[in-house]
Amino acid sequence: MDFLGFLRGLFGGGGGGGQSAPAPPAQIPASIRRPAEQQAPAAPQRSQSFQTIAAPRQEQAPSQDQGWAPFRQINFSPPPANAPQPVNFQAPLPDGFSVTRGQEEAKKQVETKKAREEKSEFFGAAGEYAPEQMSVDAYLQLEPRQRAAVDANTALVQAAEQDIASWAKSSVAGKPIDDKDYLNQVNQSFGEAGGSDTYAPRTMAVLQDLGLNLDGRDLDQYLNRSALVTASDLDTLRTGAEPVSGDASRQNNAVAFSSAASNRLSETLASGQTLLDSLRTGSEQGAQLFGAPASADRVGFAQGERDADLAQAFDILSQTRSQQDLTPETIGGLYTELQEKHGVTPNEVAQYFETRLQANEYLNTSGDTDVTLGGVGSSLEYLAPQDFRSKFLTRGA
Q1: Distance of CA 120 to the CA centre of its chain
Q2: Where are the alpha helices (DSSP H) in the chain?
Q3: Exposure winner among 4, 58, 130, 201, fewest CB in 10 A?
């Protein structure tokens, strides 16, 4: 039976056509951070055959039977009174200018280093925060602003880990960063005291794509994850949440972080992209940094009959007037027809639906959860995103 045609006859061919853009992620990645637990020091490994310990080296006296004697005798007596004095080869300094300039440069370097250390530890010291994977079920229970923060966290953690690993392999101790364009970007974003000794072009690309206000921040805060949103920070992003006791700077940072992420992710998700996908396809440099997109076939967001049918299926399922006639049998038939006709698996359909839901939610930057799927000016009534998920995207549906 032609279930999609049956539904079209009942409810008509709705809008909601997809837009062309890169693929949605194969899985919703999500990472948040919690203070890392202190690790106990590892016990020393013992060899099965023997142990070796380090002891102070002992100087051995020369054997008497080797006929040892000093190579020459050193005279420690004072020089005679009429001995010639050594010549001083040090050139005169020009009015102390070189010394003064050197002292000023050294002082500036010390002050800059101290300011960088203070800024980089403003939210917490390096090693205090570790990434933690969130389950899909827990992720879907979050409100839109919370999910936006987690999505941005995920992109930044992935970028920072790649940067740190790449720099560790390519850098030599004390080697400066030789990329003037990159250094100018860091200086413009963070100021002279906000850079890092780690070359982090991927992290900078994500930060700039998010459009975060980085004034007063430090690049190291994003490399060591201290400026990202923690599990406790997520609580402050709930609708109507009261300010919790603690560091207000962390709460303010989480709100600004989530707001910027919501704006940017609504754009990328509306065209089937992830944040990193938008950077991969945005420029040649982005592809060099992050690699080519995982797939050029963006299910649900390309041109053609397949994606038009997916968009129409989403629109029909979203309408409130459809709900009384949508039995498990008709819904199952719809999925079966999409798979038989276009080769689209149920998992790909679910990923397309979830991407459409998030793009719709992230457009609402006020933090309210009273959002429907019809869009502005729609003459039809549509489900709220959370109702759509509970009906069509819960496990076993």
Answers
A1: 17
A2: 3-11, 97-120, 136-140, 144-170, 180-190, 201-210, 219-223, 231-235, 248-270, 275-282, 284-290, 305-318, 328-342, 346-362, 385-388
A3: 58
- Given 237, 264, 297, the domain boundary residue is 297
| Average pLDDT across the chain, whole number | 73
- Identify the domain containing residue 363 by its residue range: 1-20+298-397
Q: Say whether both 262 and 304 belong to one domain.
A: no
**Residue owning tokens 């917490």:** 124
Res 154: pLDDT: 92
Predicted structure pTM score? 0.65
**Tokens linked to 221:** 């805060």
The number of angstroms, rounded, from the C-alpha of 106 to the middle of its chain's C-alpha atoms is 35
Cβ distance 159 to 205 under 8 Å? yes
User: What per-residue confidence (pLDDT) applies to 39?
Assistant: 54
Distance of CA 313 to the CA centre of its chain: 33
Last residue of a domain, one of 297, 325, 342: 297
Total domain count for the chain?
2
Q: Examine residue 241 and state whether it is found in any structural domain, yes or no.
A: yes
pLDDT at residue number 20: 44
Q: What is residue 186's predicted lDDT score, i.e. its pLDDT?
A: 93
Look at strands 31-35 and 129-133 and give their pairing.
antiparallel
Which portions of the chain are predicted below pLDDT 50? 16-29, 43-59, 61-76, 83, 85-100, 118-125, 366-369, 376, 396-397
